Please model this.
Amino acid sequence: MVEFFIAENNEIELVEYDAGATLTDLAAELESFRETAPDLKTGKCRGCGECCSDNIPVLGLDFAVLGIDPATLSAGTALSGTEFMVSGADPSVSGFDSSASAGKPFPDPWQAAGSILVLPDKPDLAFRRKAIKEMCEWTSIPEIEATLLFEYNNAEPLILAKQASGECCFLKGGLCSSYTKRPYSCGLYLCNMGRRLAYIQEMIVRQGTWHAYSKLGWIGEDELRHNPFLKADSYDKLLVSDFEFDLKNTSEQLFFYF
Ligand code: SF4
Ligand code: SF4
Model:
């Protein structure tokens, strides 16, 4: 069970959750709770869709949800920072600009299929290792905390492609055309989340982004052994508690030293 309440500033905040509460439980119970507060903007999310113009993170486990084979994506390392064509997407909602693809190694059938994903630049692993090592050497922060802090501050997510209007490629007539197969963060995000809830959501996105990098072959799993996403193959097998890392002490130490 996951418990929420409405804070004084009309934010929806997390109270507590059972030890066995999963990421699926968190999203489902947040969805139920917001509907019990019709006076809040999020009580009627379905008629808004404004956040569908934001950059929507696509996490490692979302590849399967969206029907994307990451092995195919990682084959085109030159595609970093570009839209990647995925077979099966609806070309009528694609924001893909064919002129921008000139010289890019997309097979023709994919170009006709439309685009649903934008890849970030690859992470600089030498920089990552150096930064984590220096954080440990210059402070008394344990390596795991230094790693989590680095990953929190350096996780450029894969995102859903947008239409020319700036809306998500799946948004049609103000409604999601891929509602049952949308990225996890679409179901967890609310524009009025309280601080604790927002922190957990951010941590899920950052760890899910590094997990996506590993699925793309951009980083080895041996460097991500702490990542909860490596333990499961679906959101209903991952515990909320695994994402509520306490980095307060780490941040305080860094503030003291730098
Ligand atoms: S969460 Fe998104 S869809 Fe819901 S009210 Fe806020 S902006 Fe609108
Ligand atoms: S996948 Fe659906 S819910 Fe998510 S941003 Fe796109 S239109 Fe909105």
User: Anything to note?
Assistant: Residues 2-257 form one domain. The chain has a mean pLDDT of 83.
